[in-house]
Design a protein that fits this description.
Structural class of chain A: alpha+beta
Oligomer: homodimer
CATH class of the largest domain in chain A: Alpha Beta
Order of helices and strands of chain A: HHEEHHHEEEHHHHEHEEHEHHHHHHH
Number of domains of chain A: 3
Helix content of chain A: 40-55%
CATH topology of the largest domain in chain A: Alpha-Beta Plaits
Radius of gyration of chain A: 29 Å
Strand content of chain A: 5-15%
Chain lengths: 418, 418
DNA sequence: ACATGATTTGTGTAAATACACAAATCATGT
DNA sequence: ACATGATTTGTGTATTTACACAAATCATGT
């Protein structure tokens, strides 16, 4: 094992041999580096692990037993900033012991094609320290293992562009025939069954390679939802997600978007990343609707950032599903809301703020105390103003019909100003 | 005065003489009938009264002093059913003493041209009873006095058709030039200044002559508002009203419509008479808008009879100002409200009534007790159902955005069924 | 500067509302 | 028929909300 100059050759030969039987892949690498080796895919599922039993740690046991790295370990790696370094770098990363998650000393390197993470090689170095040359060798090993991953994903890879085209066709509704859709889906190894939705993540600026890398990674590693297909369009990352559990798709997709944004904001140290989803559909030809709706949500979130700060689903847009159209109607009708006008006139004449008060009141679900808090005034002041509103506008604040009209007209009115 | 066969001749001669000086009109008739005579126009304003001072009663004093019949007397006459008989008949009506309104024995006859009431002749008979021949003579007197009224209204009469045309032009917006409008208005003796609105009264069936008669009469005798112009179109009576007091035009027009409907329903013993008004405008060229709006109100009242039972003004239509358009939008969007759908599904599956409960709750301004009363259930039941609604629909009942959307979608949904 | 009326805030009380719990009723499937 | 869970109603209590009144502050015009 000291014949150092010979090692790369040896490695190549070994790997070429085992190209089709991944089981021995880790063993061969482990032989060269003299420590246990684990190879994972981008999803942190175990692809291959060496038989070495020395220097074994808790994390390794858990990983091999479940054929997947435990979530606790992955989270720990993220928290310590290991994962970002691993994803961003082509070089091996030395990871010191992390007792709290049962991880011994390790060296790891990512396996990637362009910006896409294919997987990772983990060397369980234990007390031993790898030399600079060995680290270099590990990097070369990664390049060679990459071939294995590429071959493994042969079907997927050979049609990656076609897959993208197909996804676009689904998004735009260019294919409507269900049989054709299912045929193509089979060809690209996509499952278009059960409950699905389009999720769009919008980045505030132009997307860098690093951002793409992280986005792709995150789209691979979710659990409750499965990302069937994904692509970047300008500064938007569009995903087709499928729901494994059929229970509460709204909650699942909200959580997914939440986590996605949280993690990627954290990892890239970026603010202002928005997420949205169209409604959950069951038929593939309705994916286009879900996409349109997801885009609509983003459009409305841009127009009403505060109001829709915590809204991600089209279903939850409420009146903002049709506020644009309503705006057109009201403008066309050319008839200002009588009550709003009266209050506006009164406000400008007497330098009061009855209209903003009414707005806060309506936006607080007609709760006097919440509305008062929002405006930093005493609840009695609020009540007094409401009394004045009733008098000045001759408005019955118990009439849901009028209140609804005012609520909408106040939103529409604000749209005029922008 | 016993030369009875000669009296009609005498009457004619007398009247021809005084045709242009109304002051002596009543005197001449009084001479023939040997009792005090009062002549009123359709508005119950005094046109002419005889000098006779015998058999004078309280009502006559009040009438002459104010140059108008006191409201108390008019109301009394309506209550006793005298006015309808007078309006409907060409023959003189004998009216017994009505002490409660200070009215002595009288005989009265209406003066009319076709269906339009021009005025009335009142004979204060006192203890005397008029013979059948004298009654016949009074009828002839009415015919002759009619000539006087027609001459009196010469300008108005000669252009009655033209007036109608002009009104239609205002209603349809055929004239837009303000100068032209004011010129024509002057020609037809119409005042088109200050605050105005179009009021439309809709009759349930085809309009008979009797109904027209009453409608014209009522349009003459209102106090706080002035009916500038009016016409019948199919089963609709369209009025242009002007506001004398500028204070609270909404209240004035509501009261006007209320009273109009109440009185005419009462007089004609008719149900289902609807009234509406467009917004109050200041510029004559906006009358067309007010007309359109008044028609829109009637249209919506037909579609939502219960909801808009007490709504007459366009301003007060609330969401019904745009519910038609919203219906189109929502149909086009082809996306059912998620919350409504969930509740509907649950209701059919479990034979519950969560959706009707939510509807009642929203329509009762989110007041649990009112909604419960409306549904004849215990308030606790209401609360329980609301809890289930929150759970089943995953709906936050404190979110005004969602609630507003549901409120509107519930209305829109009901429109589908019809 | 003063008077006036509108507005804001503090204090207290009455009424309305929410909520927990228990009992009764109902629907449904085994 | 029975068990089960959902639903309805009754009862009582704690909390919230509405409202009246008073005092203080502010704006405005003379």
């Amino acid at each position: 094992m000291n014949n150092f100059p010979n090692q790369p050759e040896q490695l190549k030969n070994s790997l070429n041999e085992v190209m089709d039987s991944p089981e021995q892949l880790a063993d061969r690498i482990a032989d060269i580096f003299e420590c246990p080796i684990t190879i994972e895919d981008s999803n942190h599922h175990v692809v291959s692990y060496s038989k070495h039993t020395e220097k074994i740690d808790e994390a390794r046991i858990g990983t091999i037993m479940n054929r997947k790295v435990p979530d606790k370990v992955i989270n720990g790696l993220w928290k310590k900033g290991v994962m970002p370094r691993l994803i961003d770098s082509d070089d091996p990363i030395i990871i010191p012991e992390m007792k709290e998650i049962g991880l011994g000393n390790r060296v790891a390197v990512s396996i990637r094609k362009k910006n896409e993470i294919l997987g990772f090689i983990w060397a369980h170095t234990g007390d031993k320290k790898l030399s600079e040359e060995k680290l270099q060798l590990l990097k070369e090993a990664a390049l060679l293992v990459k071939k294995f991953f590429l071959k493994r994903r042969q079907r997927k890879r050979k049609s990656e562009e076609g897959n993208k085209d197909f996804f676009w066709q689904l998004l735009t509704g260019d294919i409507t025939d269900n049989n054709e859709i299912q045929q193509q889906a089979k060809q690209f190894n996509m499952v278009l069954e059960g409950k699905m939705a389009i999720v769009v993540i919008q980045f505030p600026a132009n997307v860098t390679e690093q951002m793409e890398k992280h986005a792709y990674y995150l789209s691979e590693t979710r659990v409750n939802v499965q990302v069937v297909s994904r692509l970047f369009d300008e500064n938007k990352f569009i995903m087709l997600v499928r729901f494994i559990k059929e229970d509460h798709p709204s909650k699942l997709v909200t959580d997914f978007i939440h986590q996605f944004i949280e993690k990627i904001s954290d990892q890239l140290n970026l603010q202002g990343i928005l997420g949205s989803s169209g409604i959950v559909v069951e038929a593939p030809h309705k994916i286009k609707d879900s996409y349109k709706q997801a885009e609509k949500v983003l459009e409305m979130k841009a127009k009403f950032p505060e109001e829709l700060q915590y809204t991600y689903l089209y279903d939850e847009l409420g009146v903002y599903q049709f506020i644009d159209e309503l705006y057109k109607i009201r403008k066309q009708q050319n008839n200002k809301n009588k009550y709003i006008e009266k209050l506006q006139t009164y406000d400008t004449k007497h330098r009061t703020s009855l209209l903003p008060t009414l707005r806060a009141y309506l936006q607080s679900d007609c709760n006097v105390y919440d509305a008062a808090k929002q405006l930093f005034i005493h609840p009695n002041t609020m009540n007094y103003r409401l009394k004045r509103i009733r008098e000045v506008a001759e408005l019955n604040l118990k009439d849901p019909n009028q209140k609804t009209a005012i609520y909408l007209d106040l939103i529409v009115e604000n749209m005029t100003e922008t």
